[in-house]
């Protein structure tokens, strides 16, 4: 593993920087190092906020790195803030690479601002969930790249996505880093293709900071595992095929998906780009890597998860049916989230149920990490939906008896969920420095590998 000497120079961050702070720091860096750093506006967000690109170095190869492809994921923005300063100020580090670095600290500016309520203090899952925002798939920068696949035809990229598309088309990056992170669990990776030379590095890297690998349920049932906690990147075609197989007759997967494909999928169509995603949580419990055998099957664990998901959806539907006549702004980002939930979740849940019932491989005994994911961690993610539901109610609450009653119902459900999690989790809040370091070292080691490979 290379570049570990950088660990000592990463600050011990106590909070996440806001969008405005990130912008100021980028502009100040270019002013401080005018011969080495260029900053320019590559476009504007849907709300009209500038999207800045930092360009550092003059190498013949291009690297494209962007933070906040989902707006609740600012770890990568912090990593890019550190890396940009380090490359600008450190001749020896910059000279180790033949890259011109193109960095966007925050690509989903508008959505990231809606998460800033927890940026000053991410120490508790209650505060995180209460101030959380994540858009529906067709409004996510990562999943709005054009695609034509079977009945799925998506050609409505967001302005933010178009910024990335232009960079991919113009710069044809050899290395691309879409900087995601999860909320709860352990560390895991997605890569464009098999690179066994790096698997030991990826596997050992989290342990340098006392973090576990995520060895429970993968994010999707169709993922190709290349090594423990390392998966092949995927596009929307794979999701389409899963839905086509499991939705049942007469259902069009495109009507459920509504979105486009991934950044990796698009980059690989316009350039010979190798992509990395390094997922990590804000919180973890040691059970996320427990590979001992549980006393139930994986099918039983997954069915528990499914039943809780149905219960969560039914509650959301009940609240939304009552709230619908009171909505003041149907363009509210929170309203658009739940409009999409009501339209697509029933089919998604049916596909999940059909998969669980019909896949014979799920009959085996579950690993305890898989049970933990299905029974506990899944409810952490349900708490985030409840947090957004409360925010939607709050922006429409005029103090009437009806709205106060709806608000009380959502508050009580949120409190019950958080109390359950607090009682059933033994969670640790991970220092921001550790999170930055894992993403930093994973990215630099892959960039170095790709450079050495292309130089042969």
UniProtKB/TrEMBL annotation:
Molecular function (Gene Ontology), one example: zinc ion binding
Q: InterPro entries from the xrefs?
A: Peptidase_M14
Q: Does the keyword Hydrolase apply?
A: yes
**SUPFAM superfamilies named in the record:** Zn-dependent exopeptidases
Q: Which UniProt keywords apply?
A: Carboxypeptidase, Hydrolase, Protease
From its record, what is one biological process in GO terms?
proteolysis
Q: Which residues form the Peptidase M14 domain?
A: 16-300
Q: Which domain of life is it from?
A: Bacteria
Q: Return the protein name.
A: Zinc carboxypeptidase
Q: Which organism is it from?
A: Mesotoga infera
